[in-house]
Design brief:
The chain is α+β, with helices and mostly antiparallel strands and about 110 residues long. Helices cover about 40% and strands about 20% of the residues. The protein contains three helices and three strands. It has a three-stranded antiparallel β-sheet. Helix 2 runs antiparallel to helix 3.
């Protein structure tokens, strides 16, 4: 298998539909081992439309290039209440990716 699965978590703001289901927002991503590219992404937003939007927004970014570009994509294109939680969860996911690379050096 040429991919890894990583998750990032963040607290949801109060008053959101997803908060009735979850206290935290989770972003999961399947990431190509060699290039660090997000192959697919998922999140625990309440609607399928929101989940699909986040998937399409994050797909194709390489975590080897850092986190600034996908964070800016969320800031620019996601205007819902969960924007800061999505960014925090993405940063947590990136931290997990970096920790994994530093300790085990992901190889194909």
């Amino acid at each position: 298998m040429n991919t890894v699965f990583i998750a990032g978590h963040a607290r949801l703001p109060s008053g959101m539909a997803a908060q009735n289901l979850y206290e935290t927002l989770t972003i999961t991503a399947e990431i190509d081992k060699k290039y660090g590219v997000i192959v697919t992404a998922s999140c625990t937003l309440a609607t399928q439309h929101g989940q699909d939007f986040v998937h399409h927004l994050l797909r194709g970014y390489s975590l080897q290039d850092g986190i600034d570009n996908p964070v800016e994509a969320i800031r620019t294109h996601y205007l819902g209440k969960a924007g800061n939680a999505l960014i925090s969860a993405l940063k947590d996911l990136y931290k997990q990716y970096e920790t994994n690379n530093a300790t085990r050096k992901i190889t194909v």
